[in-house]
Design goal:
Layout: H1 2-31, H2 38-63, H3 71-87, H4 92-115, H5 121-140, H6 152-159, E1 161-162, E2 165-166, H7 167-185, H8 187-197, H9 199-204, H10 209-235, H11 246-256, H12 268-287, H13 292-312
Antiparallel strand pairs: 1-2
Helix pairs in contact: 1-12, 2-7, 2-10, 2-11, 2-12, 3-4, 3-5, 3-10, 4-5, 4-10, 6-10, 7-8, 8-10, 11-12, 11-13
Keywords: Cell membrane, Membrane, Transmembrane, Transmembrane helix
GO cellular component, one term: plasma membrane
GO molecular function, one term: transmembrane transporter activity
Length: 313
């Protein structure tokens, strides 16, 4: 009896989010035929790529039993610095590479504060979130940075297509495959899970806990910066308020995907499903004409159910 119960629980953990996504899509498709058009699905995937990339980085951090509230501010500051370099005459390709390096460095700073500084992840990343947002406002003087020229590489990142598939969607798929391999097929992935499951045991087994967490934060910062570059390409300017609140959607996607908020358990494909659930929810409610105020309430209730389900498990 207990064995059957455990099988049901494991099945729910592995496929619960996917079943929820399928049911959600079926329900919205019945309510609104315009939802199930090919053009809408492609638009939905393109829109979800930003949150998806940030959520992938957030997954690494949460798996180590930490959290990163600074991703939205990292996105804003790295994007503003990239736009500033381009307007100052730096080639767009080089400026974009430097923006990714800066995003990685900002993630490392958060990781060092958590590990070497021994601050709680919530407090450490709350500090970096506030500082990076302030630096963005100082650098931009609270105004958008535009006049980015006509660089092909900048435009293609956010607006380009390959055989009809948007480049952001291709990046999302490629990075999903990369991170799936890292977490499931490499020693580094096992160290990530071990750090989140029981860091004391992992340390005794020879895992460098500090380095593992710092790398996780570095990945998170890099993904935030990459998302910022996609937005910069799409919008054609760097807005000082860009990325505000993005950390909440990323955390929500990770939680919906079944990753434990206490670390050590979760899958990157679950995060992808969580990202799609949020995207389908936003897209479907917009098509159905539901007020944005009600959308926030509905989204909050869905996240609450996911977190309560995790605690139950």
């Amino acid at each position: 009896m207990n064995e059957n119960k455990n099988k049901v629980i494991n099945y729910t953990q592995d496929f619960g989010a996917l079943i929820a996504l399928i049911l959600l899509m079926a329900g919205i498709s019945i309510a609104s035929p315009s939802f199930r058009t090919g053009a809408n699905f492609l638009s939905l995937l393109r829109q979800s790529s930003i949150n998806g990339l940030i959520a992938f980085g957030m997954t690494f951090v949460i798996l180590t039993d930490a959290i990163d509230l600074s991703v939205g501010s990292v996105l804003a500051l790295s994007t503003a610095l990239c736009a500033g370099m381009i307007t100052a005459g730096v080639p767009a390709g080089l400026a974009m590479i430097l923006a990714l390096v800066l995003g990685c460095a900002m993630g490392v700073i958060s990781g060092v504060m958590v590990t070497k500084g021994r601050l709680q992840p919530f407090i450490a990343t709350l500090i970096t979130m506030t500082v990076y947002r302030g630096l963005t406002m100082i650098y931009t003087n609270g105004k958008p940075i535009s006049n980015l020229g006509d660089s092909f590489i900048l435009k293609v990142v956010g607006k380009g297509k390959f055989y009809g598939v948007p480049i952001p969607v291709i990046l999302l798929i490629l990075l999903f495959l990369l991170f799936y391999f890292l977490l499931n097929k490499t020693t580094f992935g096992r160290r990530i899970y071990a750090t989140g499951s029981n860091w004391k045991s992992a340390k005794l087994a020879g895992v460098n806990i500090h380095r593992t967490k710092i790398i996780a934060y570095a990945i998170s910062g890099t993904m935030a910066a990459l998302s910022g570059l996609i937005l910069l390409s799409r919008l054609g300017s760097a807005q000082p308020t860009l990325g505000s609140g993005y950390e909440l959607d990323a955390i929500a996607a990770v939680a919906l995907g079944g990753t434990s908020m206490s670390g050590g358990r979760g899958k990157i494909y679950g995060t992808l499903i969580g990202v799609l659930i949020i995207a389908v929810l936003n897209n479907g409610l917009n098509i159905l004409g539901v007020s944005s105020y009600y959308q926030d309430v509905i989204k909050g209730l869905v996240i609450l159910i996911a977190v309560l389900s995790d605690r139950k498990r």
